[in-house]
Design goal:
Radius of gyration: 19 Å
Shape: globular
Number of strands: 0
Strand content: under 5%
Number of helices: 10
């Protein structure tokens, strides 16, 4: 049986040190350069050398931060803080409510701080097979972290089949919501699509219309 967590909001995380702030600044410069070049000339035409030149770093620096070009466009600084916030949600809150809260917060952040980049990333996941494949691979790791969060909430084995299936269903559903959003020209509310994905995982398919 797990100990109940405090229902209070977690304290604000400490401000990163100078070294970490420099790393974040470099990652953001590389991402910004990559997104600008992709918008200008397309994903396939954009090279690591061009990204490095635009970001004013060396190609080896780009590879030190991002092992592949796909990693540049699918990653951001939100994952770790949001997963930590998910783990810190009140122990008596229904699990799907906790997930919905954190996903909505993630979408709000993305659409408020980086709306154009969020839309571009979704379009690249839809249109570029290499980006979509790398996104699926990355989500496997996030799914494992989610399984740990489920285990902490329920006491179930994080490596148990049921927990793994549940966690991967969540990340897979959110990926499909992202693809659907891009397919429909970003007309729908992204947060509502994420809600609908979670609802299907929680309740199953809706009844067919007669």
């Amino acid at each position: 049986m797990t100990a109940a967590r405090s229902p209070r909001a977690p304290d604000a995380p400490p401000r990163p040190g100078l070294r970490e702030r420099k790393k974040i600044k470099t990652r953001e410069a590389i991402r910004g350069a990559a997104y600008a070049l992709v918008e200008e000339q397309g994903y396939d035409a954009t090279t690591i050398e061009q990204i490095a030149e635009r970001a004013e770093v060396s190609p080896s620096t780009v590879f030190r931060y991002f092992p592949t070009k796909e990693d540049i466009v699918i990653t951001d600084e939100y994952d770790e803080p949001l997963l930590a916030e998910l783990a810190a949600r009140p122990a008596d809150e229904p699990w799907t409510d906790s997930v919905r809260y954190v996903i909505r917060k993630a979408v709000r952040l993305a659409m408020t701080e980086q709306p154009e980049i969020t839309e571009l990333r979704a379009r690249l996941v839809l249109e570029v097979p290499a980006v979509r494949a790398r996104m699926r691979e990355a989500l496997t790791g996030i799914g494992r972290t989610l399984a740990e969060a489920v285990s902490g909430r329920t006491g179930l084995d994080p490596d148990g089949l049921e927990v793994r299936v549940h966690a991967m269903s969540l990340v897979g559903g959110l990926l499909e919501a992202t693809v659907y959003w891009a397919e429909h020209g970003h007309r729908d509310d992204y947060a509502d699509l994420a809600d609908r994905a979670i609802h299907v995982i929680e309740h199953g398919l809706p009844a067919a219309k007669s």
